[in-house]
Write a structure and sequence with these properties.
282 residues, alpha/beta, 2 domains, five-stranded antiparallel sheet, four-stranded parallel sheet, 9 helices, 13 strands, 21% strand, elongated, disordered N terminus
């Protein structure tokens, strides 16, 4: 088995390589993917679980535990691959779509899975071992999957009037889009559109190095937490999404007036290039 062969190279991990935490705190935006996989879009960590049983007739207790651990790791890494395949990249594409159409990306993703971290081990009373493995959506996976479109060379200043109460040319430190109640599905590379369908934020607006390191957007549930989040720092533009766009329910639509407010100062493009965007979801 390929995964059994890979496990021996995975058991020893580089310092600092582990994702920050296990998936699934109450305030996080979490999707279930595959049979045991979970994607925490708030922390940017994807995990999967595998359970290994000890052999029927082990030589001793130590061998039984070691073999149960190894079996659990094989299953966990296999489940992690299945979970990663189900991650949405954009409104029409999952990681699996990339894998089946590109041998290069398939090889890259398989290699990234090999570097995933063993995050937790649970020893059961029957001798079986439950292994949780995890990896980040940012970094190597984002490098392999995010579009390689260069950032826009100039801010797309619009003739639309800014939203009522907004000063023309106002500078913002980030963008928070409140899309709660719309059934938005998180993805690695979502777009934000205006009412005319024009892209206000997406892969054409980002500095790719920032996106690979930080992710194109952050997903949160709580508006207060979003406003205080370092991603958008101390003066974000807060806007309400009008609807979702596309069958994938990934892209959001904001009003033309809010889009004009965002675009009324060329310096705001720098904020978008650095992916200082948060989307609020349920």
């Amino acid at each position: 088995m390929v995964f059994l062969a890979l496990i021996m190279g995975i058991l020893i991990l580089a310092p600092g390589s582990a994702p920050a935490q296990l998936v699934g705190t109450v305030k996080d935006v979490v999707d279930s993917v595959g049979s045991t996989g979970k994607v925490d879009w708030t922390t940017g960590v994807i995990t999967a679980v595998g359970i290994g049983a000890p052999p029927a007739q082990p030589a001793n207790a130590a061998q039984a535990r070691a073999m149960a651990e190894r079996a659990g790791q094989v299953v966990a890494y296999r489940n992690l691959l299945e979970a990663v395949k189900g991650v949405r990249v954009d409104s029409t594409t999952t990681v699996e779509n990339f894998i089946v159409t590109s041998d290069i990306i398939r090889t890259q993703v398989n290699g990234i899975i090999q570097g995933a971290t063993i995050m937790d081990k649970k020893y059961m009373s029957d001798g079986s071992v439950e292994i949780t493995v995890g990896m980040k959506l940012t970094g190597a996976l984002a490098e392999a999957l995010l579009p390689k479109t260069p950032p826009s060379s100039a801010a797309p200043i619009t003739s639309e009037q800014p939203a009522a109460g907004a000063a023309a040319g106002q500078l913002y430190t980030g963008l928070v889009v409140d899309a709660r109640g719309l059934g938005v599905r998180p993805a690695m590379a979502p777009k934000i559109l205006n009412e005319d369908g024009k892209e206000i934020y997406g892969s054409a607006y980002i500095n790719r190095d920032w996106a690979v390191r930080e992710g194109m957007v952050g997903y949160l549930k709580d508006p207060a937490a979003a406003q205080a989040n370092p991603r958008v720092t101390d003066k974000p533009l807060m806007v309400k999404a009008l609807k979702v766009s596309g069958e994938g329910r990934v892209d959001t639509v904001i009003s033309n007036a809010d889009a004009a407010t965002l675009q009324s100062a060329a310096q705001n493009l720098s904020m978008l290039e650095k992916c200082r965007v948060i989307i609020l979801v349920d």
